[in-house]
Amino acid sequence: MILAFAAPNFFARQQLLTVLTTTAPVLIAACGMSLVIISRQIDISVGSQFAVCSVLAGLMTKTGCPMPLVAMGAVACGALLGAFNGVFVAGLGLPSIVVTLATMVTTREALRWWREGEFVKDLPGHFQWFGLGQSSGQAIILVGALAMFAFLVIALKHIAAGRFIYAVGSDREAARLAGIRPQVVTFGVFVLMGALVGIASLLNAIRFADVDPKTGTGLELQVIAAAVVGGVAISGGRGNLWGVLAGVLLLAIVSPALVFLGLPPQWEKAIQGTIILLAVASDGWRSRRRS
Fold first, then answer.
1. Torsions phi, psi of 40, nearest 5?
2. According to the model, what pLDDT value does residue 185 have?
3. Count of other CB atoms within 10 angstroms of residue 107
4. How many CA atoms are closer than 13 Å to the CA of 176, on its beta-carbon side?
5. Is 116 left (phi over 0), alpha (psi -120 to 50) or beta?
6. Average pLDDT of the residues of the chain
C-alpha cells in the first residue's frame, strides 16, 4: 500500500518483471531449503553449490553441449553435491549445520582455487536467455519456476514422500515406528535440495552473458530467511510452500522499494533483519501456545 501511493512507478510492467525474474531462482532454492528445514535439518552450503553448478553450466555450454544436456548437467551436479551432504548427515548421523558448513567452505574455496575469480566468458549466443531474447527468456524463467513450485506444492501435500518429510521432522522416532525410514528421507531431502539448486543456478545464469564464479554468495541466508518469514518452523515438522512464496516476494521487494522511495540502501539489511526477527518471534510464540 505504501509503495502504491509513494512510488507507483514501482509497479510498472518492466520493473515488476525484472524483480520477478531475479526472484524466480531464489524461490526454487527456497522451496528446497524449506523441505530441509521441515525435516529438521539445515543446509548452508547451497550458495557454494549454486556457484559450482553455474560455472559447470557455463563450461558445458562453451564445449558445444546443447542446452538440454547443460540443464541435466547442472541438476546432476547439484544432486551429487546434495548427496555428499546427505551421506554424512543421514548415513553417519552428523549434525547438518556442521557438515554443510564444512562443505560450504570447502566447495567455495575449491572453486576459487580452480577459477581464480575468472568469469566463464565467450559463451555462445544460445546460452543467454536460451537464445530467445530477453522478453521470451524472462517468460521461460517465470513459467519454469512457477511450474516447479506447483509441482513441489502438490508433491508435498498429496504424495507419500512429501508426507514422510513432515513425519520425520515432527518426530523422527515416531516416524520410524510407523515404518518410515528417516535416514532415507533425510538423504533424499538433501539430494532434492541439491537438484533444485542446480535448476535455480541455470535459470539465474542464463540472465547474463558471462558466469561469475562468486555467484550465489549469501544465497543460503536469503533462502533460510524466506523460509522462516514464510512460516516454516525452525524446529521442523511445520510449514507450507505458499508461505515461502510470500516470504521470498516480501524480502525481494525490500531493496528496489528503498530505491523507489529514495531511502538509503543501508536500510535494506536492517529491514530484512527486522522482518526475520518478527517471524522467528511469531513462530516461537505459536510453539509455546501449542505446548
1. 70, 40
2. 97
3. 18
4. 7
5. left
6. 89
pTM: 0.91
Q: How many CB atoms lie within 10 A of CB 113?
A: 8
Taking 80 as the threshold, does the pLDDT of residue 67 lie above it? yes
Longest dimension (CA), the chain: 58
Take residue 55 and report the three cell numbers written for it. Answer: 560455472
Rounded CA-CA distance 145/17 in Å is 13
3-state secondary structure of 41: coil
Quick check: 103 and 48 in contact, CB under 8 A? yes
Q: Worst-scoring range by mean pLDDT, 23-37, 46-60, 123-137?
A: 123-137
Contact 29, 196 (CB under 8 A): yes
Residues 167, 14: Cα–Cα separation, whole Å: 42
Give the tens place of pLDDT for each residue, 127-143.
999 988 888 999 999 99
Long-range CB contacts for residues 94-103, cutoff 8 Å, separation at least 24: 96/36, 96/41, 96/42, 96/43, 97/42, 97/44, 100/42, 100/43, 100/44, 100/45, 101/44, 101/45, 103/45, 103/48
- Asked if 56 and 77 count as a contact pair (C-beta separation under 8 A), the reply is yes
Backbone angles phi, psi at 211, to 5 degrees: -110, 120
**Alpha carbon 70 to chain centroid distance?**
19
Identify any residues that bridge with 141 across adjacent strands, giving them in sequence order: none
- Domain locations along the chain: 23-216
